[in-house]
Design a protein that fits this description.
It is a single chain. It contains 16 helices and 15 strands. With 485 residues, it is an alpha+beta fold. It folds into three domains: 284 residues, no CATH class; 114 residues, no CATH class; 69 residues. An eight-stranded mixed beta sheet has the order 5-6-9-1-10-11-12-13. The chain has a three-stranded antiparallel beta sheet with strand order 4-3-14, with no helix packed on it. β5 and β6 form a beta hairpin. The two termini are 41 Å apart. Bound molecules: zinc ion. Zinc ion binds next to α1.
């Protein structure tokens, strides 16, 4: 028996500042342990925190990109717990008065859109890291005090798949807003989930289970699926559902129990005495809002409106801001938005997927791709040749498109005389095929199209070739049109 799945996500995103949240230590990923530390982030006696203005600005920017409200005053709070990677014994966080409340984002499940509420976003300093090897455990405190924004969703998600879509969209928005590199492998974006099940139609929430510290989309969807199935089983068997915290191993693809909670953690939050309440001026918030870039939902709507692209096309193009920018540059330069979408989605995105490159490393500048698209439109080269030239440039050819076409003699053959001559040669070579066509076997005419294209080294104008072959055999040109996929 299946039950309704209720999921909320807590996402920690590391803000892309130059320095840490409360001290001047560098904030970047370093392999050498314990080098980016000072008395403040180590929590040595007598040291005092000061708030990093850039972190503040990025946190507000992220919250505004998530359509959240920024209350006029925010406060910091101490969260108490002991862990070997937290030498201070406290974490400076926010409790009752966070930087942002009541945000939302929209997920899109194959065209079906749903708005997912965001309860709050608050600042928190990160803890260090324990690195376990066989015999010993080492502590690396480089990460201690790096600025995090914790983004807490409402329990609005109804399936592990929705949780994944939410996390993907959240990451896309944060990347658009340029507040974090969102590198999941390096831990810049980490996700905890809570999940419960209940009878359909029941308004009350069931007992919550948690899954900690996931850093991939796959981990989120897979682990939630496994815990959901486990909770459904327990409920169907009328077991007493306990408050379990789970871990997930990407290696084995399995969940494991970390601990069973008797009651809620008591972190004994209290106001951070070393940092005063902070009021954010309307002017500052408005200035940050005005500087926000066009966000994914708005860009998607504009691409559909201005360029007449489909939801499928905009979905692919807008998922990555750099790809969207690249597309728009090609579409504008070629003055051909639809063709540009086809090329970017089918050729560019495919090449990037296969090679693992990002669009920033893609060897073809937007103007070059626009040249190819314009060349096909103006009948200077045909489509297969254009793809060949694209591949040559991807493979390292440094010449301009026009130079490759001219020097390698790749121009399209539009000369009807040359096409007719190739047709005559093909017919002389295989009179039987010609007889078949004349006898009513229309598809055999395609053999002649192929022969002519071969003779012209693949550079014939496909439309002209088809037309001449059709006319020669007295067929309507549509008879030879390629079947649309
Ligand atoms: Zn420091």
């Amino acid at each position: 028996m299946k039950y309704e799945c209720v999921i909320g996500l807590e996402v920690h995103v590391q803000l892309a500042t130059a320095t840490k949240l409360f001290c001047a230590c560098p904030n970047h990923f370093t392999r050498e342990p314990n080098v980016n530390v000072c008395p403040v982030c180590l929590g040595l006696p007598g040291s005092l925190p000061t708030i990093n203005a850039e972190a503040l600005r990025l946190g507000v920017k992220a919250a505004l990109a998530l359509d959240a409200e920024i209350p006029p005053v925010m406060k910091f709070a101490r969260k108490h717990y002991y862990y070997p990677d937290l030498p201070k014994g406290i974490q400076i966080s926010q409790y009752e008065e966070p930087v942002a409340v009541r945000g939302a984002l929209e997920i899109n499940d194959n065209g079906e859109k749903r708005r997912i509420g965001i309860t709050r976003a608050h600042f928190e300093e990160d803890a260090g890291k324990l690195i376990h090897s066989q015999a010993v455990s080492n502590v690396d405190l480089n990460r201690t005090g790096t600025p995090l924004l914790e983004i807490v969703s409402e329990p609005d998600l109804r399936s592990p798949r929705e949780a994944r879509l939410y996390l993907e969209m959240l990451r896309t928005i944060l990347l658009y807003a340029a507040v974090s590199d969102c590198n999941m492998e390096e831990g810049s974006l980490r996700c905890d989930a809570n999940i419960s099940v209940r009878e359909f139609g029941d308004a009350r929430l069931g007992v919550k289970n948690e899954i900690k510290n996931m850093n991939s989309f796959r981990a989120v969807e897979n682990s939630l699926t496994l815990v959901y199935e486990e909770l459904c089983r327990q409920k169907a068997d009328r077991e007493n559902i306990r408050q379990v915290t789970w871990g997930y191993s990407l290696d084995t693809g399995k969940i494991f129990q970390m601990r069973v909670k008797e009651d809620a953690n008591d972190y004994r939050y209290f106001p951070e005495p070393d940092l005063p309440p902070l009021s954010l001026s309307r002017a500052m918030v408005d200035e940050i809002r005005a500087a926000l870039p066009e966000l994914p939902a708005a860009k998607e709507a504009r691409f559909q409106r201005e360029y007449h692209l489909t939801a499928y096309e905009t979905g692919i193009l807008v998922a990555d801001r750099s790809l969207a920018d690249y597309y728009e540059a090609v579409a504008t330069a070629a003055n051909a938005p639809k063709e540009a979408a086809n090329w970017v989605i089918n050729e560019v995105a495919r090449t990037l997927n296969e090679s693992g490159l990002t669009i920033k490393d893609f060897p073809l500048a937007p103007a070059q791709l626009a040249d190819l698209i314009g060349g096909v439109r103006d009948k200077k080269i045909n489509q297969p040749t254009a793809k060949k030239v694209l591949q040559m440039i991807i493979d390292g050819d440094k010449r301009e498109v026009a130079a490759i076409v001219a020097q390698d003699h790749l121009a399209q053959v539009n000369d009807t005389g040359a096409i007719a001559a190739a047709l005559a040669a093909a017919e002389a070579k295989n009179p039987a095929a010609a007889a078949e066509v004349r006898g009513g076997k229309t598809p055999a005419a395609m053999w002649f199209v192929g022969q002519i294209m071969g003779q012209l080294q693949g550079q014939g104008d496909p439309a002209a070739v088809t037309q001449i072959v059709a006319a020669h055999f007295g067929l309507p040109p549509e008879a030879l049109a390629k079947k649309k996929k």
